[in-house]
Amino acid sequence: MIVVLKNNVQEEKRTQLIEWIESQGLRVHVSTGDYQTVLGLLGNTDRIDMELIASMEIVDTVKRISDPFKRCNRKFHPEDTIVDVAGVKVGHGNFCVIAGPCSVESEEQIKEVARAVKTAGAQMLRGGAFKPRTSPYDFQGLKADGLELLKAAREETGLPIVSECMGVTDLALFEDVDVIQIGARNMQNFELLKAVGRLSKPVLLKRGLANTLKEFLMSAEYIMSEGNDRVILCERGIRTFDDYTRNTLDLAAVSMLRELTHLPIIVDPSHATGIARLVPPMALAATASGADGLIIEVHNDPMHALCDGAQSLKPEEFDRLMRRIGRIRDIISES
Ligand code: PEP
Ligand code: MN
C or N: which end of the chain has fewer Cβ atoms within 10 Å? Predict the structure, then answer.
């Protein structure tokens, strides 16, 4: 249930109402916007007398929210959320490009890619240290050493770092990582979602391979219900019957999520297509669709990459793409 207050309500009356709602056994999420204040009621609202609340002098409207997701719901929080990552803002018109290799392979590799993507204009550096691989015989990542190399690349370039955590037991290693990525395969690892929800650190939550938007938002809700509001959603393609691309990029999801949630939404054209030459057109389309940013795989030597070489852009291709993304941004910001 949400309670929209009238404009310019006295602080004291607002507090009284919140205390009264809390005395009914509910929790209140307050969203203070430029124009209106929205109180989101969390808990079992069945026994709450809607008419009584609606009749209060300071109340404008009362609505029941049937969606199962509350904290990430735009109805609860009408204004866009901006997630701040060490000074880099994502959301509400703040467009952010995260780039880097699929996996951290060596100091030389990660530093070379970090320098290149920074020069091209990326705002954050990605790099997997713990890799979710379909085969147990494939490269599993450099793990803790990989995270150290990422930090060294951050030290040199100043780019905040993004890396995937696959399990609760590894979380302690991510203390000094700027954004924790929850990968597609772990989108419904509820214990992991709850654990990152207890941290005060931004989380990049990727959509599961075969998950609906409602399930995706319920996973964001798991993180937020533990107190962490700094969630960035990532559409990375879903499994369909397409036979030539790795996944199907669901760009309509960006527009639909925009209506449903206030959280920033970015797009991963690399895992969505699996083919480097398809990454630029899909990155441009995602930009035009109004996404809040992109996460793109870039490798200095894709032919010898230990993971996902086929979908990785070379630094010069990324540089060219960044200039084209800039032009699309100019066009959409004019309209
Ligand atoms: C990744 O970004 O490195 C990754 C494994 O992506 P996803 O979880 O979307 O497959
Ligand atoms: Mn990858």
Answer: C
